Amino acid sequence: MSRHLSIEDLPLNRFHKILTVRSAGGTFVDGYVLSIIGIVMAKITVALGLNAFWQGLVASSALIGIFFGGFLGGFLTDKLGRRLLYFVGPALFIIFSLLQLWVESGMQLFIYRFMLGVAVGIEYPVASAFLVEFLPKKNRGPRLAGITIIWFVGAAAAYIIGELILNYGGDDAWRWVISSAALFGLILFCLRLGTPESPRWLLGKGRIAEAEQVIKKTYGTQYGIANLPAEEPRKKLSFINLLHSGYGKRMAFVSLFWTCGVIPLFAVYAFGPIVLDALHVTGELASVGTIIITLLFVAGCILATSLINYLGRRNLILHSFFWSGLALLLLGWQHDASPVVVLLLFSAYALFIGGAQVLTLVYPNEIFPTEIRAAAVGVGISMSRIGAAAGTWLVPISLQTQGIEVTMYISAAITFFGLLVSFILAPETNKMDLNDAASLSNTPPATSNEPVTTQRVKEMP
Fold it and tell me: In whole angstroms, what is the distance from residue 105 CA to residue 46 CA?
């Protein structure tokens, strides 16, 4: 019986759960590293005598690093293997977090933060590719989506730990704050020891005996490569050639929807108090509102994760972009409304954008074949961070020159463009074997004339 059963149809086992923790741990450290700098930026500015130029560079250094790390990590993960790159990110977290203890200039801090950004960029393609290539198909979407939630947990931990160190760490506490990520990098490195290589990657390199051994070790001795669905036969092509062969549209879809999802999100997240002030939400209500909106970002991701298998990927992303875009549109239209109305609309945006956020790791890992899967994730994260950096930089300029109404309309337009791109290009991959999902024969819209939700209802017992 095991000879005919796909390993993608097997239930979750202990290895899957451990691997989920190992991969999600990287996302936790990402959230921690990227958030910790904001807590001590004012103290660093005074201690190092940073001018406006260096403040801007230090603040954006990690985003710049992610751009390069995404490309590099994706390429090397497909070239050298998932297991080797699995330890590069944690090693960089440890080294460059510790070096911040002795930083003496804006230039040094920029370099160290840039390299931490590179580590973050590497983490996205390798951790998600590793996870998707082992998980059963029914758990693939929820577990990949759930990783996004862990980012917010890391960010919250950064704020809590950072404040504690500042309160009890003395005059140089800011140094201990920004270097504290080294501890989590060390824990992550140790946690990942013993992880085997992906059997799909091994098969792609012709290392059949090693792939067989990994499958038996992780799934049971009764299973082997005969239980791993065969990938669509292809000539060995480069990443660029594969894009020309038909995957170019999918790469455009991933890059565009990811970018459209994060530009308004980063802008709102980075400049929440300023945006709320422009909408006449001030004082204690603004402080409480910022906390509520942040919590609803998390709640939106949790809700989307719980719905991803029921609604399907395509329906989820369309609903997410439509309702969150509508909330931003109404914020522009009702920019002079009462603070309560403004907070309700902002809360609606935070809740509904969760669907697009959790799919940023699901879609690129499902719709590309093994040989370019990590590279596709790397390109997606790199391109999206260009948009995030540009959006973050332009928000205060737009508020000053165009006003809050136009700024909200621009944010809504970006979100609706993401909706249009998704409507045209987003395929449905729910309940598919990984190879079927990555096949070019799986094209949007869903092949059935029935909506995805109707199909799911009929399939439920």
Answer: 11
Pair 29, 186: CB distance under 8 Å? no
Helix or strand or coil: residue 353? coil
Percent of residues, the chain, with pLDDT higher than 90: 32
d(CA 122, CA 74): 7
Phi, psi angle pair for 61, to nearest 5°? -60, -45
Count Cβ atoms within 10 A of the Cβ of residue 405 and give its class: 0-12 exposed, 13-18 middle, 19 or more buried: middle
Please name each of the domains of the chain with its CATH number.
7-195 (1.20.1250.20), 239-459 (1.20.1250.20)
Residue 402 phi/psi, 5° resolution?
-110, -25
Percent of the chain with pLDDT over 70: 85
Cα separation, 48 vs 149, in Å, equals 34
Helix 14-48 and helix 88-99, axial crossing angle in degrees, nearest 10: 20
Asked whether 171 and 58 are in contact (CB, 8 A), the reply is no
pTM, full prediction: 0.78
Burial class (CB in 10 A: 0-12, 13-18, 19+), 112: buried
Distances (CA, A) of 389 to 270, 313, 364: 11, 27, 21
Report residue 169 as tokens: 């760490």
Closest Cα partner for 389 from 144, 164, 70? 70
Give, as one character, the DSSP assignment of residue 225.
G
Q: Which of 416, 152, 431, 156 is nearest to 301 (CA)?
A: 152
Is the Cβ–Cβ distance between 165 and 180 less than 8 Å? Answer: yes
**Residue type at 27?**
T
| Average pLDDT across the chain, whole number | 83
Residue reference for tokens 């709320």: 276
H-state helical runs in 220-271: 239-242, 248-270
Burial state string for 414-445 with b = 16 or more CB within 10 A and e = fewer than 16: bbbbbbebbeebbbbbbbbbbbbbbbeebebb
Measure CA of the first residue to CA of the last residue in the chain; give whole Å: 25
Q: What is the pLDDT of residues 218-257, one digit of tens each?
A: 988 888 888 887 665 555 556 676 666 678 888 889 989 9
CA 330 to CA 168: how far, in whole Å? 45
User: Which tokens is 68 given?
Assistant: 């390069």
Q: Read off the tokens for 266.
A: 């980063």
